[in-house]
Amino acid sequence: MGRPEKPLPVGGANPGHLMLAAHLRRWRTEAGLTYAQLAQRCAELRAVDYSASTLRRAASGDATPRLPVVEAYAEACGASASVARKSGFEPCPTMPSRQRTGHRCGVTCWC
């Protein structure tokens, strides 16, 4: 068993980041997986190689994780990707999807 997870940040933290992090942590806890096991499940289910560190950062609440990471995380825990997409973030309302790469609009979104 690894060391305990740090508590989610408070004060000044983005509420959307915290909401998503809380969902991710709950899914992982309910699935009874360590981050190493979660990384292995992501590789098995989606053929993607996300490290345990990447998945841990996604659930830290410090920043917006990339959507494919969130979807793989959720599916590896037994949640659906569509539920994951609705767990705190929406696509950026200010830009068409084809232009979102690298865009940072300042709101809680996956741009």
What does this structure look like?
The protein is built from 5 helices and no strands. The protein is mainly α and 111 residues long. The protein has a single domain (15-99), classed as 434 Repressor (Amino-terminal Domain), CATH 1.10.260. The longest helix is centred in the N-terminal third of the chain and has 17 residues, at 15-31. The radius of gyration is 14 Å and the shape is globular. The chain starts with 14 loop residues before the first helix and ends in a 26-residue tail after the last helix. Residues 91-103 have low confidence and may be disordered.
Measured by DSSP, the beta-strand proportion falls in under 5%
What string, H for helix and E for strand, traces the elements in order? HHHHH
**Helical region count?**
5
- Indicate the radius of gyration in whole angstroms: 14 Å
**What structural category characterises the helix and strand content?**
mainly alpha
This entry's quaternary arrangement is single chain
CATH class category label: Mainly Alpha
Assign the CATH topology: 434 Repressor (Amino-terminal Domain)
- Structurally, the number of domains stands at 1
Mean pLDDT level: 78
Number of strands: 0
Low-pLDDT runs: 91-103
Biggest sheet descriptor: none
| Tertiary shape | globular
- In whole angstroms, the N-to-C terminal distance is 35 Å
Helical residue percent?
40-55%
CATH architecture descriptor = Orthogonal Bundle
Keyword list:
5 helices, 434 Repressor (Amino-terminal Domain), about 45% helix, globular, about 110 residues, about 0% strand, mainly alpha
